[in-house]
Structures are given as C-alpha cells and as structure tokens.
Design a protein that fits this description.
single chain; about 80 residues; mainly alpha; Arc Repressor Mutant, subunit A; 2 strands; globular
Length: about 80
C-alpha cells in the first residue's frame, strides 16, 4: 500500500494538498502550506520537490498553484 511509501510528514503534506484543493477548487500555494504547517518557505519548497521527485505530485515549475496529486484518495492518510 502507498502509505508505506511516504513518511508521516510527507503524508500530511499530501493530505493537506488533497483537502485544500477539494475545499478551495484549486491547489495550495507554498505559502498556504507554510501557514498550515507553521514552517519556513525553504522547508515547504524542499518538501514539494521531494514529493515531486518521489512521484506523488506533479507541478509546473514557476507556475503558482500548479500542484497535482498523483495518488488516489484511498492511498492518502487523514489530515491531522
């Protein structure tokens, strides 16, 4: 199962992207993740790059709010 493929923290970012997109009709910007997780811009950016490199999301570099989840909902954890 996919839950074994990502860390707890990565799963929380993936869940946040899923719920944010569902509630707002558009993907989150990095600033939205920064506010939610109360962390720094470089930390969020590194996580986005990691999730992309691991094949969990896709995005268009330089284009805001272009994150697309590549995992189905049933492979995501609940957002805590």
């Amino acid at each position: 199962m996919a839950k074994d493929l990502y860390t707890y923290k990565q799963g929380q970012y993936l869940a946040f992207i899923y719920y944010y997109t569902k509630l707002n009709g558009r993907p989150p910007a990095e600033i939205d993740m920064q506010r939610h997780f109360r962390t720094t811009p470089p930390t969020v950016h590194q996580m986005v790059l990691t999730l992309e490199r691991r094949g969990f999301i896709s995005r268009e570099p330089g284009k805001p709010r272009s994150i697309q989840l590549l995992l189905p909902r049933d492979q995501l954890p609940d957002l805590e």
